[in-house]
Design a protein that fits this description.
It contains 5 helices and 10 strands; from the N terminus they run βαβαβββααβββαββ. The radius of gyration is 16 Å and the shape is globular.
């Protein structure tokens, strides 16, 4: 794993010492899944385009991880390219359900261990099913478990390692007026 702004002190596994819990969980997950990745620490950003530029990718290669509730204590994670949004009809059809919702920020934190803006499928405190939009292929960047931290890796390898379902579940993002 390549680290673009890592602490010079590392633990025996090669992970920089004194990382916040979320970042450590992500790095541990990358190691346990055998995924090659580059970690970039760029600090807080104010837009998806700014985050993509800081990570050296185009907005369609920056992948958002969305928490979706099917019902009760039943959640899943949906990987969405930065220039797209979830297509609720497509996702409901794929899952065979008539209703889905997005939890509030406190619930998303409780079910993943990550606050909004840092949610990633790597290192969640509980394993949830993952659906990856069919466009999550090639070089991508996802959240690294902390604000201003990104993980760049092969999307195909990530989808395979997570056992994610790959399907067309998004629509192009519509510009706001």
């Amino acid at each position: 794993m390549t680290d673009h702004a890592a602490s010079p002190t590392e633990d025996p596994s090669g992970t920089p010492a004194h990382l916040p819990d979320g970042e450590r969980r992500v790095r541990d997950a990358l190691t346990s899944l055998g995924l090659e990745a580059s970690v970039t620490r760029h600090g807080r950003v104010s837009s998806l385009a700014e985050a993509a530029a800081a990570r050296g990718v185009t907005p369609d290669r920056l992948i958002k991880t969305m928490v979706v509730r099917r019902g009760g204590d039943d959640y899943l994670l949906v990987l969405v390219p930065g220039n797209r949004t979830i297509s609720w009809p497509k996702l409901r059809a794929l899952l065979g359900v008539s209703r889905l919702s997005m939890p509030d920020a406190a619930t998303a934190l409780a079910v993943t261990g990550f606050e909004r803006g840092t949610i990633t499928p790597l290192g969640t405190t509980r394993a949830w099913p993952v659906v990856a939009d069919a466009r999550v292929t090639g070089v991508i960047s996802i959240g690294g478990g902390g604000h201003g931290v990104g993980v760049t890796l092969d999307g195909d390898a990530l989808v395979a390692a997570l056992g994610a379902t790959s399907a067309d579940v998004t629509d192009p993002e519509q510009p706001t007026a």
